[in-house]
Amino acid sequence: MWSAPAKNMKKINMSISFVYGVSIQDNCENAVFTFLPFYKQNIAFFLFLTYHCCVVDFGYSEGESLSNCMCRITFSTIKEYSMGTTQPIRNKDELTAFRMYYKDIRPNSRNYCLIVMGLNTALRISDLLKLKWDNVYNFEHHVFRSHFLINEQKTGKNNYVTLNCNATDALRAYFNERHPTEHEFIFTKATCRRQPLNRVQAYRIVRTAAEETVQDEHISCHSLRKTFGYHAWKNGTPPALLMDVYNHSSYKVTQQYLGIEQDERDEIYLNLEL
Fold it and tell me: What CA–CA distances, in Å, run from 274 to 243, 262, 270, 271?
């Protein structure tokens, strides 16, 4: 039997030395790593695993001392691409096909709504997944809100988000199918309406659509947020506004984040005919 006392977790993490055994299950979606706590020489290896994987289970065998016990850590799917390699969807035809995948090819109103909301609000996936219906819908007046306030999980800052027509239409179709209560999460598991999707499930939704519609392999949940900014820039949105949306310190940072530096350089050559 495995348990995971919080008071001992940090001590165990910091004393992992080498991998005792590794087994891969479910097509690498769940990897179980068994460790023997020892000294601190290989802490970098553990930090590598925690950076690239999502910890879903942690524990040690009861009744044994921390110096000798066998520790077991279960990681779920390898994390999505780092923010630096994740790309926006630049091609408009691919973007349309990607957005419509869960409406036309594999109809699923929840998945379609998730992608449309991600593309049109620029919210991080962590903030999208914690949204509840009363964030976007006024149950007293039976209307969708034009704006809503969210406290960003990563930054702790308040963000006043606008719902455009595409986002509202997707929400309305999903709402009419679901008939939710005000305190339900918007994006929930199919098997339990009380639990929101987790990041791994959201990643699978995005990757499934991307693999069928987008040539670039570096598409993940964060691509939705980057795609918003990229096409806002292409449509002439002032750099200062994009910096404000993403809370960047300079336009240079925004250029790198959205991958538009090379695009701007390319346009110099393509638009100049001497």
Answer: 34, 21, 11, 10
E strands, the chain, in order? 2-3, 16-25, 30-37, 54-61, 71-76, 137-138, 143-144, 147-151, 158-162, 188-189, 192-196
Identify which of 118, 128, 249, 270 has the alpha carbon closest to the alpha carbon of residue 187. 128
Q: Which residues are catalytic?
A: 124, 154, 222, 225, 248, 257
- Any residues with CB less than 8 A from the CB of 100 and at least 6 apart, and which? 112
Tens digit of each residue's pLDDT (9 = 90 or more) over 162-177 = 999 999 999 999 999 9
Q: Give start-end residues of each CATH 1.10.443.10 domain in the chain.
A: 92-224
Give which of 144, 124, 126 is closest to 134, Cα–Cα: 144
Residue 112 identity: Y
63-100 pLDDT per residue, tens: 433 333 444 444 444 444 445 589 999 999 999 999 99
Residues 6+ apart with CB under 8 A from 154: 124, 126, 127
- The identity of residue 221, as a single letter, is C
Classify 92-224 by CATH class. mainly alpha
- The one-letter code for the residue type at 40 is K
What is the residue whose two structure tokens read 């930090």? 47
Decide which of 81 and 222 is more confident: 222
